[in-house]
Write a structure and sequence with these properties.
The structure is a homodimer. By secondary structure, chain A is α/β, with parallel strands linked by helices. Chain A has a single domain, classed as 3-Layer(aba) Sandwich (UDP-N-acetylmuramoyl-L-alanine:D-glutamate ligase), CATH 3.40.1190. Chain A is built from ten helices and 13 strands. In chain A, strand 4, helix 2 and strand 5 form a beta-alpha-beta unit. In chain A, helix 3 packs parallel to helix 5 and helix 8 runs antiparallel to helix 9. Chains A and B meet through helix 7, strand 13, helix 8, helix 9 and helix 10 of A and helix 7, strand 13, helix 8, helix 9 and helix 10 of B.
Amino acid sequence: MAVLVVGSVALDSVRTPFGERREVLGGSATYFSVAASFFTPVKLVAVVGEDFADEHRRLLTERGIDLSGLQAAPGRTFRWKGEYGYDLNVARTLRTELNVFAGFRPSLPEHYRDCEYVFLANIDPDLQREVLEQVRSPRLVACDTMDFWIAGKRESLLRTIRRVDILLINDAEARQLSGESSLVRAAQTIRALGPKALVVKRGEYGAMLFSESSVFAAPAYPLEAPVDPTGAGDSFAGGFIGHLASARDLSEKAMRRAIIFGSVMASFDVEDFSLGRLVRLSREEIHERYRAFSNLTQFEAIPEDAS
Amino acid sequence: MAVLVVGSVALDSVRTPFGERREVLGGSATYFSVAASFFTPVKLVAVVGEDFADEHRRLLTERGIDLSGLQAAPGRTFRWKGEYGYDLNVARTLRTELNVFAGFRPSLPEHYRDCEYVFLANIDPDLQREVLEQVRSPRLVACDTMDFWIAGKRESLLRTIRRVDILLINDAEARQLSGESSLVRAAQTIRALGPKALVVKRGEYGAMLFSESSVFAAPAYPLEAPVDPTGAGDSFAGGFIGHLASARDLSEKAMRRAIIFGSVMASFDVEDFSLGRLVRLSREEIHERYRAFSNLTQFEAIPEDAS
């Protein structure tokens, strides 16, 4: 099943302790689309400016991503500039230029409107709902957000969240949204706002899934040489939703597998700047790393002579 | 097999967002001993002052802990005062009073010297070696330390570490000791200093085991209402070494089970102040939570129609 994603397509300037890149392809919808494209067809909704290079467009179409919902508007493409410290865990935003994103009104091509799987990447919650209203009968709606909207546009965000099946946010955001310091309680509070499940992204510490009946915790893949975490959360979401859409299965078991596929895609993303690693990826490498996650987490039941 | 532990026995004054306790029983050797006592006999080496209450001594002997190596010295017992913020992840030390610990020279009773399992809790690395030299033929030596010794007594610490089989430290300490930001590389560097295995404790994010052939990652147990993380690392070590000593097995499989038993004991420790929860614990509860860890981490292999 195809996945529809709305979010940003950006030009990123990034500095990490391992190097620097200027005006490289980035954005939440971009990372999501490329990661999800290994699992299922993707239809992208976003806006770019006149300065958006053909090579970027080509990179996306070569991954089979449908760009008919990618508007081209007069002006400059959205830009983000940030840097990471030694432990790569926290991004420091140095500058955000909304540019064409400032006037963005999403309009879905007719053939997008029957998509059953929808990912609302981190954008203004008003825009997230505008997209939802154009989708006829979504089977699964997943959504990301950030501290900026939780603090500054809470009512609108809550209206979006009410219509969402799975919310994917980081642990600080889960605490901020719920007002609870315990993630277990945060998940209870957030699930009472609408979502059937909460996925908490914890960067180098992995991810957790809080669903109706259980909690699942997955570590992040321990990388010898992480390079740039930009896009890891959206790559995670791409693997996660991509697997669910492809498997057409929303059971607890499928959700857990999807968390691992999400973690796999995030781990590859971090291995290079921009989409450098994701575009070189093979299905066999994805499966190999999935198996590595099994080995990373496996332990025996309590032995007979237990102590 | 009995485990020998050297470390601190302390009176702690602790404030967390969930309450406050003054001059309650604490200390690395205390938490370790009580946690390990659910798995195997424990022999404790430490020093207390004249003010150390009989009830504390009784609490330990009722858990079967051998106190013949607990010296009583003129003066006051070691005291620690600290507090935790909202997320409970980082302790802020407000005051440390070494008191009788300042002049402590460990001297092992004769019947301690044949112990084959030894845990050197976080104390001066000179003292850690003094203990080691009194043990005849240890089969497994595990060791904890902290930033204070890594920065201030590095040469002595490295001499201790050379004789250690398993080092248990937190992630910041692993990075500080190795000079590497990637934990995978930190583990390689640290294992080259002597230890066959490195256990990295990550608080609410769980623990990792880096051994010769593999990496294992376990989450922390998601608690609805954590209360006080004091002693969690030492309770972890108690469950970890306690299981290894009890199983008399140092295989990779046993080490992974031990990480889970350590995580179980740490999770219980956090549920109350001081040793409040640990002393009320039953073997059945420990096994039940071990099984909960299986459920928390389980996921399927890649399905046949994988995507």
